[in-house]
Amino acid sequence: MPRLPSSRRGVVWFRWKILITISTALCILALFCINRQSNSTATTTTLSSSLSVARSRIPLVKYSGDRPKLAFLFLARRDLPLDFLWDRFFKSADQRNFSIYVHSIPGFVFDESSTRSHFFYNRQLKNSIEVVWGESSMIAAERLLLASALEDPSNQRFVLLSDSCVPLYDFGYIYRYLVSSPKSFVDSFLDKDNRYTMKMFPVIRKEKWRKGSQWISLIRSHAKVIVNDDTVFPVFQKFCKRSLPLDPKKNWLYLKKRRHNCIPDEHYVQTLLTMRGLENEMERRTVTYTTWNLSAKKAEAKSWHPLTFTSDNSGPEEIEGIKKINHVYYESEYRTEWCRSNSKPVPCFLFARKFTRGAAMRLLSEGLIESSIDTTTL
Question: 30 φ, ψ to 5°?
Fold first, then answer.
């Protein structure tokens, strides 16, 4: 039987290796997709069950008390690295004026072994879920926090915070600022990044599509709208997903596609409240300050990561500069939003992010989170 020349055998073997490699890769990708779909289905089922239980616990009787609470909702990756700063903040408050809820990874418990502040003991949600950046699980976690907080009828204002947020003023000033206003503070503007897809039609119409900061402060009626939504959230679950399961810093295709992908936490609340005709009940701005690294190289300009405050750039000059901001300009609408609370001019920001431990320690040591303005104006 004639044998193939060694050169041809090498070519055939090379082609077989390519075929085997491609087949293996496709199998791995298929398994990944099946696992991801399975996890997504499990998360959806858990969320639906948890929200149903929470909804049944929300009191129907209108609050008639004279001491409304401000609910602090922390969205944490695990623990709260700045708990020592928040401990000082809450110590200056009457405990009847606030409540605390933390969404962390499933199974994580806040106790003496995991936090330095007793204010956070056992404040974690028992029905927390795994959260993935760029997926609907982020807004699912926000809804769980709101649902838990709504169970207490005294909670009349709700502020969402990250684990790297810090207060810029003392509790008294922040409490009066938010509670005295009859409106929610929701950063909301027209989106020019082409993240809307016609696949969302007719549930979500393009003219109602909005964008804004994830960090919101809500009145109770708006919190209920978000928790009770069964129409808009499923659309975000279906169409707002990461483009590719790859490291964005290493794959230019991911970066290119991601610009056209809907980021749920930047659109959901803004779009939902707009669809419900509630824009006139909102101050269309956030009360949480975030700054972006404008000096970054062009290739890094779309990295979507805010500037981090360290002990070097969180001194009196930087903090007082944030506190002096009294308006925000929205380029997509050619709109200047002058900051007001209960129709009175106020500083725009009550909180700021992203702060390291070193930066938080400097804020405390230099007394930079005390009120430095006339608080009687609220």
Answer: -65, -45
Residue 287 CA to residue 348 CA, distance in Å, equals 6
**How many structural domains is the chain composed of?**
1
pTM > 0.70: yes or no = yes
Largest CA distance in the chain: 101
Q: Which of 107, 114, 120, 103 is nearest to 162 (CA)?
A: 103
Q: Please check whether residue 22 lies inside any domain of the structure.
A: no
Query: Is 266 strand, coil or helix?
Result: helix
- Output the domain CATH number for residue 84: 3.90.550
Name the residue range of residue 188's domain.
48-55+66-241+260-287
| Strand ranges of the sheet holding 166-167, from the earlier edge strand across to the other edge | 166-167, 351-352, 288-289
pLDDT band at 256 (very low <50, low <70, confident <90, very high): very low
**Range 278-298 average pLDDT:** 82
Residues contacting residue 176 through CB under 8 Å, at least 6 positions apart: 375, 378
Is position 105 within any domain?
yes
What's the CA gap between 267 and 160, in Å, rounded?
Answer: 15
Q: Is residue 374 part of a domain?
A: no
